[in-house]
Amino acid sequence: MAYLKRLAMPKTWPLARKGSKFIVRPLPGRRLQNSLPIAFIIKYLGFAETTKEAKFILDSGRVKVNNKVIKEKAFPVGLFDVISFPTIKKNFRLLFKNKKLFLHEINESEAKLKPAKVIKKTILKGNKIQINLDDGTNTLSKIDCRTGDTLVMDLEKNKFLPIKLEKNSLAYLLGGKYLGKLIRILDIKEKEAICELDSKKINVQKRYIFVIGKEKPIISLPEENK
User: Do residues 7 and 24 share a domain?
Assistant: First the structure.
């Protein structure tokens, strides 16, 4: 099992740099600054005091990520993923709060939804279209979407709802000075967008924009992020 020195962990992790020297390193697959190992999450939420206790909970099959049972303690939980504890009926989504990763508690209904950003579309043999998402997953679909749009997946029905990257859409910021803030898109250019945040206009790089709704966000957000 690989470990990470606490001093070398990303600044987005909600953990003091002083303490035990090493922490569990998430497995590859998600950006390190936007993910946390599931064992750390279980301890952070207060459901276990040690990694050994967290591993026992995982081995018992009592933890799900995006509606799938997870038993690997270094499994990387990424931004917007849903972490569920069915036996106690608790659900959380990994988001940002005060520029730190944060476990935002959500209800059962919202726990069925998982948004992901379209980063690429590829035409395969037989004229099939493969959609590549920012969480590392791919899907074969004829959904009308473009790079930069968001697909919201119903984790129970395995269906997708597209949200377009367009004017007047609401978006969540994935980086920069306003990390984790909710903004409204006013205009879109080639590499950036003009957005509204707290009644003022700001320029945002398109790569930081994650669309999450039109009139209102399709997911709930911590108060600080609104």
Answer: yes
The residues near 62 (Cβ < 8 Å, ≥ 6 apart) are: 85, 86, 87
Q: Is there a contact between 211 and 165 (Cβ–Cβ < 8 Å)?
A: yes
Q: Name the band, by pLDDT with cuts 50, 70 and 90, for residue 18.
A: low
| CA gap 135, 171 in Å, rounded | 17
**Cα 214-93-158 angle, rounded to 5 deg:** 70
Beta strands 64-65; 68-69: pairing state: antiparallel
* CA-CA-CA-CA torsion sign (27, 134, 162, 37): positive
| Local structure of 207: helix, strand or coil | helix
Structure tokens at 80: 């917007």
Q: Could you tell me the CATH number of the domain that includes residue 135? A: 2.40.50.740
Distance CA(110)–CA(127), nearest Å, equals 34
Domain, as residue range, for 202: 170-214
What does pTM read for this prediction? 0.92
Summarize pLDDT for 179-215 with one digit per residue, the tens. Answer: 999 999 999 999 999 999 999 999 999 999 999 999 9
Q: Which residue carries 């988001």 as its tokens?
A: 95
